[in-house]
Amino acid sequence: MKSKEYRLYLFLLPAFIMFTLFVFIPLFEGVRISFTNWNGYSQTYRYVGLYNYKSLFQSKLLKVAIVNTLMYGIICTVIQNVLGLCYAVYVNKKFALRNSVRLFIYLPAIVAGVIMGYMMYNIFQYSGGALNDIMVLFGAEKIDWLGDETRAKWIIIIVNSIQFVGVSMMIYLAGLQGIPSHLIEASMIDGANAFQRFIKIKLPLLIPAISSSFLINMIGGLKLFSIIFALTNGGPGISTHSMGTAINYLHFANENAGQAATAGLVLFCLIFFISLVMNKYFQGKEVEM
Amino acid sequence: MKKKGLFYNLLGIFIILFHFLPIYITLMTSLKQKSDLSSRWLPPNYLNLDNFRFVLEDKLFFLAVRNTFLITICSSIIVILVGAMTGYVLARKKGWISSFMLMLTMGVMMVPTISLIVPLYKVMLTLQGINTFWGIILLISTQYLPISIIIYSNFIKSIPIDLDEAAEIDGCGKVSTFFRIILPQLGSVTTSVIILNGVKMFNEFVFALYFLQTPDKKMVTTYISSFFSEVSNLNVASAAALLAILPVVLVYLSLQKYFIHTSIESMGK
Amino acid sequence: MKKEVVSLVSLFCMLLLFSVACFAQSNVILDFMTNSPAHVLEAYKEVAKRFEDETGITVRVTGYGKDFEALMKAKMATQDLPDMWMTHGWSVARYSEYLEPLNNQPWFDKISGAILPVISNDNGEIFVLPLDVDKSGVLFNENVLNEVGIDIDDLKTWDDFVQAFEKIKAIGKIPVGMGGKDPRNIAQFLDVMASQVLIKDPSNNFAEELLNGTFDWSNWDAMSELLLSLSENGYLNKDILTADGPTVNRQMALDQIGFMFVTNSAVQEMREYNPDVKVGFMPLPSIHPGTEPIFIGGERNAVGVWKNTKNKEEALKFLEFLAREENMSTIAKAQGQMAAFKDVSVDLGILTKYYEKYADVEIQPYFDRVYLPSGMWSTLQQVGAGLISGGLSVKDARLLMEQDYNRLR
């Protein structure tokens, strides 16, 4: 019996090997690079100690990128979950178009981020962009939508949220459909109205769905890369860079692989810390109910 | 009640139009010639399918679609099998090994891929995995394994442990319990795993860019992005993008029915 | 029990099968990678086809567009390079560590004097076969200049240009077009003008200081201010920070833009938008009194061979083939540039008359390739975009340049 128990741990082996080979070995190599002045392609480099860690805090680019990354992560998560839950409640009702609505909300999520970015660029472009055509039609001045720092950030956030709101909707929809109907019926008999039913019965039962949706959105938002790459390329100036695009820029364009590796580790710690906090929070909630 | 239905449908039309907008603009662009500079909202006043013809006559496009499907399907199989196996152990076993593995899993989920590219390239070179399908399949599976492990482990926790115990009394070991009792019950959650990850695998870009370099091994995303970056022909690129979305939409449509079907089934229990 | 083991093993067998399926190689295949735009890429494929017909050796041409440099850096880092690649101006500073010296090749003596110094390192070694000579100046739209009554022969100095900008601005068109979404287009302006500002004037010549590391970076402020003067006076397109290359080329093709500081290969795309577009090019205006307009030139299409390739003999054969007149002119024509060999002539269409007109104008190398370390091209991009967006002040720009210069040297 005992030996059979241990055989079960063999089940962990494939995943463990894959993680080690393709994540942990490269990750430790990254730690090593972060102590060098490597330019990203030469065979020669030297160790510079903590230089990259010190200069990290003086780099304007990385300061901007960290703030933006947090902003993208948090605001995207909020928008996607609030809107996703609303959509899920809505498409859970019975009406003729409901399946089409589900399809079209989910449709953008199956388009690759790079392609979506290019599609959206056609809309927000200054000359010949679809949005400015409407502005001109109503006699307004054309606006360089992506030319203003704050506006460009919000456009990135909105584009990303709208693209992936379908994923949250699906998770919540599955959650809503998983709520046993006898619970709802019982509360109806107790005379609870629709709003009370939603807050008291449905929401607590959705906690697992909320927790997984939050985690997926948050990590997606913090790792945001391809939309920025295609929409603004980090511009205007450096103002819309996320950590992802900043790392790419530092490593491949700026020939500053050491700094890029350092930034990668910072991003990793950032995501790890935020997820840990979120997980603890939701676990607490689940126990309460 | 009737009135409410009308309101829902109207709201539905509005939402559909809103979410369809980028695709509509792309469709209009794909139907125009490069020299046509009219507004992006307007359809062309001539019939022009040259952009689509250009893509469809390109052998490499079909190769890219085939490669992408091959990679997505194989990666999905690995993610499902390995994910369910790992999830099962994490759900049923307590102790330091499980907690350690859970921690690793969470950690992997949070590693930003972009910062791993160069060290990863070295690993792949040692394994001779550059420009091979198995190489990128393993990479992509590794990336989406953590989220599946967590989904499976959460789901298996909800399967009553009595079932396992009953099986053990019947003389099954833990391992065969997994294959005989647990695996058959994972149908609906597997669908979610496929829906959640399959799309992202299909749209993989960064790995495909670095690890599949020959033209006949490109994935759809790298194939299309070459139109944006090399050719800078927006019209052909738009046509290619739409053609590339098409198979995913079809797969999704057929899976969606299954998705709802399984949800209803699990509600009936 | 066995069943489980079997399924585990079969999983890995499946993967093995895939790997076997991928090893279906036949005779020698040479890999050639480039970042050329579409029509140049097609030209390379055409030449590769001719080569295969003649020798039976397949050359697999792969285009990587803007992803090329990142991919090549990853490949250099891991010493996994293609047999041949296009070095786009970096054969010495970036790629020479991995390239085969080619001085002993039969075509060596044919290389024109305009390009030979650019592709040689300090020991006189060369690492590439150059195919064309890049000549960058200012592209202009003839229709726009005619509309405001400017004769290109009157444009010699920066002040002449500023007056022309004012006239174009007055009729509501864009004096200078730049597609700054890709900040390379802003950096290009800094790169080509820097020679006029920092190198050309005998009394303001900083070449030596830049090369030996004693350059006083406060002198860079003149460059920043030159760029800022364009945006502050409203000479740039309104969407400078968000327009991409094709958008600006389209505006140029529609006679909305007067001048552009880009390479001549952009003309190909303008003609796709408007086949009758009338554009020409001229040398860069002088900044300091007493100096003359110049062109910036250098290596563009140049092909090198990986020093560790297993197919060195075949690769060198392909280079020899590329060096033939008809093949070289195929590439040079697609790029819209003159060939890199003395005796090869190229038909350059609407640009021909300007090449003839300015045949004797001095050519300076690209500033960043000679006076800045590899890697600062991206700093130029960051500085250019930062200055225009207001994210960087003139002083920030100076500090950033200095910091990267010292780090990358």
Write the layout of secondary structure elements.
The complex is a heterotrimer of chains A (289), B (269) and C (409).
Chain A: H1 2-7, H2 13-33, H3 51-56, H4 60-91, H5 98-106, H6 113-124, H7 130-137, H8 149-177, H9 181-189, H10 194-205, H11 207-222, H12 226-231, H13 243-253, H14 257-288
Chain B: H1 2-31, H2 50-56, H3 59-92, H4 96-110, H5 117-126, H6 133-158, H7 161-169, H8 174-182, H9 187-202, H10 206-211, H11 220-231, H12 234-268
Chain C: H1 2-21, E1 29-34, H2 38-55, E2 58-63, H3 68-77, E3 84-86, H4 116-119, E4 128-130, E5 132-136, E6 138-141, H5 142-147, H6 158-170, E7 174-176, H7 184-199, H8 207-212, H9 221-232, H10 245-253, E8 257-260, H11 266-273, E9 279-282, E10 295-299, E11 302-305, H12 312-322, H13 325-335, E12 338-339, H14 352-357, E13 363-365, H15 367-371, H16 376-389, H17 394-408
Parallel strand pairs in C: 1-2, 1-3, 7-8, 10-13
Antiparallel strand pairs in C: 3-11, 4-11, 5-10, 5-12, 6-8, 6-9
Helix pairs in contact in C: 2-13, 7-9, 7-16, 9-16, 10-11, 16-17
A few lines on this structure:
Chain B is mainly alpha-helical. Chain B contains twelve helices and no strands. Chain C has two domains: 28-134 and 298-352, 3-Layer(aba) Sandwich (D-Maltodextrin-Binding Protein, domain 2), CATH 3.40.190.10; 136-297 and 363-408, 3-Layer(aba) Sandwich (D-Maltodextrin-Binding Protein, domain 2), CATH 3.40.190.
The largest beta-sheet of chain C arranges its strands as 2-1-3-11-4
Number of beta-strand segments of chain A: 0
Q: How would you classify the helix and strand content of chain A by structural class?
A: mainly alpha
SS summary, helix count of chain C: 17
Shape of chain C: globular
Integer average pLDDT of chain C = 87
Terminal Cα span of chain C: 62 Å
CATH superfamily of chain A: MetI-like
The greatest inter-chain interface is formed by: A-B, 92 and 93 residues
Low-confidence stretches of chain A: none
**Portion of residues within helices of chain C:** 40-55%
User: Which architecture of chain A does the CATH hierarchy give at level 2?
Assistant: Orthogonal Bundle
Average pLDDT value of chain A?
84
